[in-house]
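Hi P.,

Sorry for the delay on this. The queue was packed all week, but I finally got your sequence through. Input first:
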Amino acid sequence: MKESLTAGDVVRLLDELAPPALALPNDKIGLQVGSLDKPVSRVWVALEASPDVVAAAVQNDVQLILTHHALLFRPISVLDTRTRRGRAIQQLLAADITVYSAHTNLDVAPGGVNDVIAEKIGLTDVELLDVTYRETLHKLVVYVPVSHLASLRKNIGDAGAGAIGNYSHCTFAAPGTGTFLPGDKTSPFIGTPGVLEQVEEARLETIVPDSRLDHVLAAMLAAHPYEEVAYDLYAVEQPGPAYGIGRVGNLPAGMTLAQFANHIRETFGLRHIRYAGDDDLRVERVAVLGGSGSKWAAKSLAKGAQVLVTADVGHHDAGDAWQDGLAIVDATHAALEQPVCEVLADRLQKMADARTGTPGAVEIVAAPLDVDPFRWT
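Then the structure:
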């Protein structure tokens, strides 16, 4: 356990929840401003590092801001501190506040943006809308003395090895005899330098997803008693777990499109909402995609949805979708994605507390500001 955490430590916790490998191609994720080496005691999770969020973070002595939207999503060639954005970046640098972004990797990640939206709406039997990533799998084989088999199996399982569907810690072990001749400069756990040794060992094998490989190997080396650990890694051809953008699921009870649009408006705290489709359309199956998701209209139809809940829908996209038979409910971008900040902050807080062993040593909360640029009259 660590008594305190650096910005990099917190980022590694975030990367466990939303692995960077899940991000869509060419997305702008990762470090935006500042350093990951600095110690942190107060962290905000925000939809974006807007000028208002930055100003409040400076006043509240925040050292790290984790955002969904990248601060530098569009390249800037001039940093003009006369603009609100320029002054915000100047404030971040002057106050030594680090900004780190998890964008589409947080959209895709289990428990991320789209799962939070689906849960708030009340969808059941939720599945991926569009598969965007399949994780590579590795077969790990390690030879271990029988006396340490159980502890090694537990350690690598706890680190993420052996996950098959809804089962974890899946392994296979077979007994055998290991031989080795310790060299003159060795300090063997078993045996004597210069004497050929035979040991009852087990061949332990398991599956490891690529995103957990470093963690599993570190856990294996930590639990193994030998100075030199004999292990093999093999490529596995069967596909690993699927991850994807958007979600689709069923309503507990069907309703009209007009009723459903009002349900979305109330659920996400909007004064008004716009939608395209027939008021009396019966809605039972719903696709959701946080952010700008109109290009997933065809996927939504293919998944049997009557409506797609998303944001930033243009006139022609809405019209084309409805003409093809898919209704559209367009909530604001911020309204759909803001709820993930509280969920993510809670999850990270629990992980940080476990890492330090001192609850609250690092405070991680959702930024207490609304970043939606739109207002209603």
